[in-house]
Design brief:
The chain starts with 15 loop residues before the first strand and ends in a 17-residue tail after the last strand. A hairpin with a 2-residue loop joins strand 1 (16-24) and strand 2 (27-38). The chain has no helices and twelve strands. It is mainly β. It has strands at 16-24, 27-38, 49-62, 65-78, 80-82, 95-97, 101-113, 125-137, 141-142, 150-151, 163-172, 177-185.
């Protein structure tokens, strides 16, 4: 028989705390600290993913302009990677250790109805979102997985774009909605490294 059986047991405590302060109907401040965890699967020698995640942000409504701004900082003791065909692997889905890492950045979301204040029964909401992400390894290690290879502290984590933009305009009423969306995703590395991205690793 080719039946393969593997077993892995994990016990974990995952605490978190958050707070929300309402300054007024137009402005809210929120923040939180949470422990992050992902089980290691059944791949031998793989440790669970563990992190401490911080966020601080605000939700606002200024004369019909609604939005949210969030700054985040995720500190990983051990980042988990997966063997995916989409990232140049064999597609086995096996997980592997990827060392200490920090993923930090900001996110901004804005919404506004361009027909606000008119007598029109139509709405023309415009939505803009922007995400800035800085994702770097904080330890040196050598990985057998091609997308990581020889990693040095400060190397950027592959497949995470630094800048992402999205713009959506919609025309809607109570019966129908028509929307148009445009998206920009910055170039990103396909192998860990630092500095300008070589052509073969974009």
């Amino acid at each position: 028989s080719n039946l393969k059986v593997s077993e892995n047991n994990v016990n974990v405590f995952i605490p978190g705390i958050g707070a929300n302060y309402i300054f007024s109907n137009e402005l809210t401040l929120f923040g939180g600290v949470h422990k992050g965890f992902a089980p290691p699967g059944s791949t031998e020698g793989t440790d669970p993913e563990s992190s401490i995640n911080y966020e601080l942000g605000s939700r606002f409504n200024i004369k019909g302009l609604t939005g949210e701004f969030v700054a985040y900082y995720n500190d990983y003791d051990n980042l988990l990677g997966s063997d995916l065909a989409a990232s140049g692997g064999e597609g086995s889905l096996d997980q592997f250790n990827a060392g200490e890492s920090v993923v930090k950045g900001v996110e901004l979301i804005l919404n506004y109805n361009l027909l606000r204040g008119t007598q029109s029964k139509l709405k023309l909401p415009l939505t803009f979102s922007y995400t800035l992400t800085d994702a770097k390894f904080q330890s040196d290690f050598i990985s057998e997985v091609e997308i990581f290879g020889e990693v040095n502290k400060g190397d950027q984590i592959p497949y995470i774009p630094q800048n992402q933009l999205n713009l959506t305009a919609a025309l809607e009423n109570t019966v129908y909605q028509v929307s148009l969306s445009a998206r920009f995703t910055d170039e990103f590395r396909t192998q860990a490294g630092t500095g300008p991205i070589p052509e073969e690793y974009r």
